[in-house]
């Protein structure tokens, strides 16, 4: 009976864990096997406390900034780089925790999504700048190393945005999750105005201001940018069958995999390997995924024409 009770508890724990995931098919392998199980243990510890998902996001950003500082000063000793690798790991675990905690408490919100994205960008940018500073100091020729670092930052930002877009597309077509970006943006602006009248959350208001400027720059504040314009989406089953392998390939080189590569490269004091790997292998992988995605879209369009 005791063993049966333990199995039941483990099953219930596993089912509760699955409920706070966005979707197993959308997760990168390191997340499923390592980061998110650790994050879920942390979430269960925080569940009875008053800690909010936004506070966890800020903690993740703090450790991202700390990781960048430690990596930048990695020539002071191997232990400094090891601590930097640990800070990257902790930042990523906390980044997994914030969304899981929000889903567990039912507090997911457009602002939480924006803050999470902002924290990710700030943390990863600090880590990459730390890598550039270390390598330019270690090898000399600072201009060349900073150019390589800037190219890697652009590549990583572009690829992360593309993978995130593929996830959103999957959620929309396969799971029917619609987003009205124009309405979300209006709600964020109104929330910022309320905070301004109350004299609260100056930092959060600044984050919203940056996001509003970004959204307007890319036209995300228009009605056409929302998911209300999805009448032409293909049949979900056919689309999923054709795109799932492509999504899995994209996730094999996704943002978490890149952070894991940084952790390993820092732990072994070989951050040059990460930089060159990102620029050469990472971009070749990304182009290959894009070509496969383009081919899948053409085949779906051809099928739609044949059936019309």
So, CATH architecture?
A: Up-down Bundle
Tally of DSSP helical segments: 11
SSE pattern, N- to C-terminal: HHHHHHHHHHH
Unreliable stretches, pLDDT < 50, 5 or more residues? Answer: none
Helix/strand/pairing category: mainly alpha
The Rg value, from CA coordinates, equals 21 Å
**What is the mean pLDDT?**
87
Shape label: globular
At the fourth level of CATH, the homologous superfamily is: CDP-alcohol phosphotransferase transmembrane (TM) domain
| First-residue to last-residue Cα separation | 61 Å
Under the CATH scheme, which class?
Mainly Alpha
CATH topology: Four Helix Bundle (Hemerythrin (Met), subunit A)
The largest sheet, given as strand count, sense and whether it forms a barrel, is: none
What is the domain tally?
A: 1
Number of strands: 0
Helix content: over 70%
Summarize this structure briefly:
With 308 residues, this protein is an all-alpha fold. It has 11 helices and no strands.
Describe the overall structure.
There is one protein chain. This protein is mainly alpha-helical. The protein has helices at 2-19, 29-46, 53-72, 78-105, 110-139, 142-175, 181-198, 202-217, 236-252, 255-267, 271-307. Helix 6 runs antiparallel to helix 9, helix 7 packs antiparallel against helix 8 (202-217) and helix 10 (255-267) runs antiparallel to helix 11 (271-307). The N and C termini lie far apart (61 Å).
Annotation keywords:
mainly alpha; Four Helix Bundle (Hemerythrin (Met), subunit A); 11 helices; globular
């Amino acid at each position: 009976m005791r063993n049966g009770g333990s199995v039941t508890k483990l099953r219930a724990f596993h089912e509760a864990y699955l409920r706070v995931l966005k979707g197993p098919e959308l997760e990168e392998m390191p997340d499923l096997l390592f980061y998110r199980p650790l994050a879920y243990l942390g979430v269960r510890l925080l569940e009875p406390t008053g800690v909010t998902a936004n506070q966890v996001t800020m903690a993740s950003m703090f450790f991202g900034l700390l990781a960048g500082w430690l990596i930048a000063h990695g020539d002071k000793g191997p232990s400094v780089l090891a601590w930097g690798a640990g800070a990257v790991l902790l930042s990523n675990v906390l980044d997994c925790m914030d969304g899981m905690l929000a889903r567990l408490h039912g507090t997911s919100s457009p602002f939480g999504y924006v803050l999470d994205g902002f924290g990710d960008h700030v943390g990863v940018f600090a880590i990459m700048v730390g890598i550039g500073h270390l390598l330019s100091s270690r090898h000399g020729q600072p201009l060349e190393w900073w150019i390589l670092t800037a190219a890697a930052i652009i590549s990583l930002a572009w690829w992360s945005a593309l993978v995130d877009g593929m996830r959103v597309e999957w959620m929309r077509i396969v799971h029917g999750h619609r987003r009205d970006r124009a309405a979300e943006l209006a709600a964020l602006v109104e929330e910022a105005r309320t905070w301004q009248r109350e004299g609260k959350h100056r930092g959060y208001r600044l984050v919203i201001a940056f996001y509003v400027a970004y959204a307007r720059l890319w036209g995300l504040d228009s009605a056409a940018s929302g998911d209300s314009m999805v009448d032409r989406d293909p049949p979900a089953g056919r689309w999923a069958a054709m795109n799932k392998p492509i999504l899995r390939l994209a996730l094999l080189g996704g943002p978490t995999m890149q952070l894991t590569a940084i952790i390993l490269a820092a732990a072994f004091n070989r951050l040059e390997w990460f930089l060159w790997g990102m620029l050469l292998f990472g971009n070749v992988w990304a182009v290959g995924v894009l070509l496969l995605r383009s081919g899948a879209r053409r085949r779906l369009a051809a099928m739609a024409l044949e059936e019309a």
